[in-house]
Amino acid sequence: MEVTQLRRTPRLTVALVLASAVVLSGCTATNNGNEPGGTTVLKVAASAAVTTWNPVTSFSTEALYMGNVYETLIWRNPDGAAEEFTPGLAETWAASSDGLTWTFDIREGATFHDGEPVNAEAVKLSIEAAKAKGGASFIWAPLESIEATDEYTAVFHLSYAAPLDLIAASTYGSWIVSPKALAAADADENYFEEGKDAGSGPFTVDSYTPGSSVVLKRYDDYWNKDALPYYSIVDIAITPDAVTSQQMLTSGEVDLATNIPLANVKTVADSIGAEVRTSNSPFNFVALFNTTRPPLDDPMVRQALSYAVPYDDIIDVGAQGYGTQSRAAVPKGIFPYSDDVPVYTQDLDKARDLLAQAGHEGGGFDLVLTYASENSAEANFVPLIKDAFAQIGVDVEVRGELFNQQWENAKADPASAQDIFVLYYWPTYSDAGADNLWSLFHSSEAPFFNLSYWKNAQFDTMIDDAAVLSGSDRAAAQAKYIEAMNLLVDQAPAIFLYDTQAILVSPPDLNVGQFNENYPFTTFFAPITPAS
């Protein structure tokens, strides 16, 4: 069926450092609050570079800024919120019983920063552009057509049932853009690149100096007066180095920093009298076994190795304790995560017993493990895997490679590829069934991210059926996904290591909202206000 044709564009090493932690800290405000014309400045150090200002093709770390300038039809709320979604540019939405038709009622009175009205035609043109040439165009694979049935009603027709609410709330590929700007970008592919914007969000792009700074300015005509930003200016220094970012924060050069070394979080918090808060994030570490070659073609051997792994130690070393053990590569807080999915715990005696049952008493075989050398977390924790496997008689050669090289080598030929591929992964939108489970483990003749090369027809059927159900019956889809995840854990084509946590250093003089794992690359500046 068509759902099995979804593909993702590789993001390669994007945010290997950025996503290790999201840290918000410190704030100083002037006065005047959020009254139009008032001047309040928030100074920020952020590691997020800008690869493009085009909201259609954007698929990288500039998402930090995009989420403040552009809006989606609806927003996905953090795990545990009373409501799953918050209205955005759509006030209401509904799906047909078969999940094939979705209707969005666009709010009246919202305007783009160029003064054009937000209406159904703008929605139609924006999503059609995202499907045709978006950086995350593959998320729109279910979309057959859109029609603007009147000025403020957009109707989406799908070729198969899909969770369009999750897709429409994506941080990638779902921004609603002014039609005038879309036309200008069609005529000139560089139209956006000096920092022009055409969103409807609470901020506009006031200025941009490549590699140096982004300045956002409050959009005083923003439709949501209750959410009009307190800060009239957000002055962001692009600061890739986390230590430099920390120094800028502690010296008072900036009020807020989005990237502080994990090892220093508590020290920084103590130095400014802040509280450290942790939240879910969608980032996940997995170690994929090469299931095409002996002895890793035997599930019992893979189970044995899974029991040998020191999961708690890996979280302590790789994430400085800011992580939770992964359940079947579906990050906590992201659909279809479930606490009912089992996890392995380290049990060296059980690992040795399983190896003996599989005909490998005492181990006696060698494996090659590759990891992305630029990912400091992986570099820190892979020696623990090597040491643990040595205790059951399995020798591991560890190879650090630049991710591009590691990935290309793994895709070339499973017969000569690595035995274990350590991968850092996250879903493009808030559906780790259609992404993580499908991309990492669905059978494929030409592996993309299924670098375990695992093929299991029963698993394929389960997640294909669940993907279709997710568009019409989310609860039934969840149940089917849980079956699939239980099978995945049992067959162990990978070691499910840990989900990273987002870290918030919350100072006493600043009100900062809950981190939203559905928008991990975006720091939302509009909700930030002084505590006093």
UniProtKB/TrEMBL annotation:
Similarity remark: Belongs to the bacterial solute-binding protein 5 family.
PROSITE patterns named in the record: PROKAR_LIPOPROTEIN
Domain of life from the UniProt record: Bacteria
Name this polypeptide is given: ABC transporter substrate-binding protein
Keyword entries, A-Z: Signal, Transport
Pfam families on file: SBP_bac_5
Signal peptide as annotated in the record: 1-29
All residue ranges annotated as the Solute-binding protein family domain in the record: 84-444
Keyword S-adenosyl-L-methionine: no
InterPro entries linked to this entry: Peptide/Ni-bd, SBP_5, SBP_5_dom
Biological source species: Leifsonella bigeumensis
